[in-house]
Specification:
By secondary structure, this protein is an alpha/beta fold. Helix content is 53%, strand content 12%. It is built from 10 helices and 5 strands. It is globular, with a radius of gyration of 18 Å. The C terminus is likely disordered.
Length: 206
């Protein structure tokens, strides 16, 4: 069917492309795979419902550079960025450029498929965006001043140790505030927490 979604996978590692191809094939989702962003960009515009999965570190063009290029082209395709350990700052930058989500390696296959389905669902339910934004802002309004400061640090891409130093508290205390944030915001992952904050316009928007 022409309305069936096709997932576009961009990764310079052939083994990763093959693994993701098998994963989505088993989930009944069609895929197109590219070894770099350049042939993907050459295939634009895309006519079927879609989601893009891209590695953040690639030799010809990084995932962040791809997002900038898509923004310059006026493309609003939902993009999920795959990041390595220690790439949180880059992942947050990617989300500020419009990435729908980021998944950290090593990732769970079922979690990635669920993330793709969620992105496609959000894409198809654009009319619900305002209501969702209002709900997120209401949750942000329940945060304490210190929790907002920690959220600011996370949204800026800072690790716990940096946030702790900036606020004059211990990394362990930051971890406690971070856990409280996740609970109050109903976020199951750091990427979801960051997406919520960006969706609401940041903690200061509440």
């Amino acid at each position: 069917m022409t309305d069936d979604p096709v997932i576009h996978i961009i990764d310079d590692d052939e083994a990763v492309r093959d693994s993701l191809g098998f994963l989505f094939d088993a989930a009944g989702i069609g895929i197109r795979a590219y070894e770099s962003p350049l042939p993907f960009l050459a295939a634009l515009p895309l006519k079927t419902p879609t989601c893009v999965i891209t590695d953040i570190r690639m030799p010809e063009m990084t995932g962040v550079e791809l997002l900038r290029r898509l923004r310059d082209l006026g493309q609003t395709l939902p993009v999920i960025v795959i990041t390595g350990h220690g790439d949180v700052t880059l992942a947050v930058e990617a989300m500020k450029l419009g990435a729908a989500d980021f998944i950290e390696k090593p990732f769970d296959g079922e979690a990635l498929v669920a993330a793709v389905r969620s992105v496609l669902k959000r894409r198809a339910s654009g009319d619900e965006a305002d209501a969702a934004r209002g709900a997120v802002r209401a949750r942000i309004a329940t945060l304490s001043a210190r929790e907002r400061q920690v959220l600011d640090g996370l949204v800026s891409g800072s690790p716990n140790k940096t946030i702790a130093y900036d606020l004059g508290i211990s990394p362990r205390t930051v971890e406690v505030y971070r856990a409280n944030l996740m609970a109050k915001m109903h976020a199951s992952s750091l990427s979801e927490l960051v997406r919520m904050a960006l969706q609401a316009g940041g903690p200061e928007a509440a």
